[in-house]
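Most newcomers find our protein records easier to grasp once they have seen one. A learned vocabulary of local backbone shapes supplies the integers on the structure line. Here is such a record, shown just as it appears in the course material:
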Amino acid sequence: MISGRTLLYGVVGHPVDHSRSPEMHNRAFAHLRIDAVYVALPVEPEGLGEALAGAHALGFWGLNVTVPHKQEARRRCVAVDEVAARVGAVNTLCRRPNGWEGFNTDALAARSLLAEEGVVPGARALVIGAGGAARAAAWALLELGAVLSLTARRIDAAEDLARALARPGGARPRVGPFAQLRVEASAADVVVNCTSVGLRGGDESLAGVAFRPGQLAVDFVYGETAFSASAALAGARVLRGETILVRQGALAFTLWTGQAAPEPEMAAALAEESS
């Protein structure tokens, strides 16, 4: 039962009605008998600063941040951890007395899951997109020693991301033209979709991607998308958005509560809603 003592958490995004985060976090709170509730908070881009200040004033203890706010939210934080500073985006906010501290659990989740999938130094990786999710995925792949290529519909955004991720003494990620997506993808061992394709149900597609057996296809968008479906049909291994969502959510949960997240329960909550 929600009362005046119930701790408040939520996710801000635009759109956000598709979010599965309330299902998994509310299941986790219930499983551990924590008096807390997690809600979806629709926030248009121009209202992010006001929304974050308002959530802090209202006593929210933690927030997740999703499309399209991850980079702007980083600029609204009073502090960020080392990973979020390197990535240049945040997806998790923790309450501090004077504002929000930002973290990037997307990046940490991607690094752990990609390592579990066998991504090793020298693996050829292609990241499609240049927003907050792309920043997290690119950071994770570089941490694992992958040879990274970037592409996006806006080539200038991909170039900006490559510059931001360049490391002193290390190779800068290369940028390939979006028109050459088929060639870029066919040469990669790992192909990561960090665009919003599939999120809004429009007619936009990644039809240029051709998969092959042995590849790893990673989709940051959850649900059945053309990207993940075509990868599976071609015999590629698929790391779905739901898996990334649960892992980053578990990391955020621990940051907020100081308790180990019940990751199997969180995954089960999403599986039940999907069946």
Summary: The longest strand covers residues 7-13.
